[in-house]
Amino acid sequence: MAEVINVCGLNEEDFKKAKDKITNALSVLCLRDKLGGNPFFFSLIATKTHNIVDSKTQAASTDGKVFYWNHEFLSKLTNKNVEFVMRHELLHILLSHCRPERVGGRNSKVWNIAVDYFCNALIEKEYMEIDNENGTSFHSKVWTGAFDKPISLDECLSLLEGKPSGYETDKFRLLSDLSVLNSTPEEIYEIIMKKKQDNKQGGQQDKNNQKGGKGEERGGGNAENEDGDGEIGDGEIGKIDDHMETKSTKEEVAHAVEEARQMMKSSRGKMPSYAESVLKELSDPELTMRDFIAKLCMKKSNDGELKNWSVFNRRPEHLYRRGANGSVEKHQRLYRPTKKGYTPKFLALIDTSGSMSDDDIAHGVKELKALLKVKGSSGVILPCDSTVKWDAATSVDNVNDLKSTKIVGRGGTCFNDFFTNYKEKVGGDFDVIVVITDGDADVIDIKLKPSCDVVWVYTRRDRVTTQSFGKSVFLKSSSL
Ligand SMILES: [Zn+2]
Q1: pLDDT digit string (tens) for 66-124?
Q2: Distance from the CA of 480 to the center of ligand 1, in angstroms?
Q3: What residues are neighbours of ligand 1 (ion), with CB under 5 Å?
Q4: Domain(s) of CATH 3.40.50: residues in the chain
Q5: Global model pTM greater than 0.85
Q6: How far does residue 387's CA lie from ligand 1's centre (Å)?
Q7: What is the helix (H) or strand (E) element at residue 335, kind and residue range?
Q8: Within a 10 A sphere around the Cβ of 323, how many other Cβ atoms?
Q9: Within 13 Å, how many C-alpha atoms sit on residue 233's CB side?
Q10: What are phi and psi of 175, to 5 degrees?
Q11: Protein fold of 287-480
């Protein structure tokens, strides 16, 4: 059974209250679905440790192994609220929301908002389905206790615009909106980022009009600062948890889900509809361009080649030893190289053959944005159909340059020429080659495998060619 640990030194009475909240919530979760529980979630959390803390976390959080509860936050919640937060945390783990490879290089505040919307809406939907099947009314009880009515996505967007409406409440207003379930968290993220971008532009105009008047503050702050600092508290809107990096491996999570499935079989419990896709994603993850880039950057910056031995850390470290008179003295200076940032230089080949739609091409080019967001990165983009259009090569080193990409040719598809001749035509000094295609292509001879990384970005799933080298990614991210 779950263990509850008094990490922050609460007095006996307060700790008992906190512990009761956790165990009571677990006993609700343990009930059958139609009684308001969720045996699937229960089996995932039943043996976990819960640490009652005061400063480590502001609200609730988990790294997949241990759950952390701020005792002040916990004291405000009802058992039902605690149970909701437990479901929320488990969904983050199941759906890999807090893994660096999924977060990619995104603005973390906005990503947190996007995944919270997704989790909360998914929980709401589950309650509604149970209610529909059994004539119960669990959904209407979600927003009770410390939880006030939720913040819809539209309202959140207007909050980002600086128009708070009824947000000044003591209760927690969670981010939830069933309409987001038509989108992936990645798409919700894009919606919010676009809104922030529009605000910035609006703010910039206000600034120009008012010469540094008030519009500057509310408009969304510094155009260079993607982290959104200085904007109207978007990191705090609807916040019920801190998103810690997940420590459980995907295999561990998949194993736990599999165990839960076995338990469901024997107890007539219901597996959630998304459990199958969760298992598939955990055991056979589908890479996106961002995943690929995040992995590439991680790999490169862990490699010795990126350590810069000519620039040492400002504060040298030393080995110490005991001196003759018993004092401790510095023995040897330790030289540690500073880490150089990874600035990928890429060569992108875009399939402009007849089978690629204009949208495919536009979306493909957009994927390169993720690469160009890595600081200092640059690249060359080449169109290709039955022949490589060497003359139409476009150099890019920022996102705006993508607009000047020349798209020519609408014939067949042939990449052999490209892999045979690119070094001679555009140089061989690239870290990664990106091929954007719908997949209707010949398999390239393994002998042409370049020494740098290669990624095939597929715009369609039904014509994917298994290539003899390189990684494959898909334009569309996973649906959960
Ligand atoms: Zn969350």
Answers
A1: 999 999 999 999 999 999 999 999 999 999 999 887 887 788 889 999 999 999 999 99
A2: 14
A3: 116, 241
A4: 287-480
A5: no
A6: 49
A7: none
A8: 11
A9: 9
A10: -85, 110
A11: Rossmann fold (3.40.50)
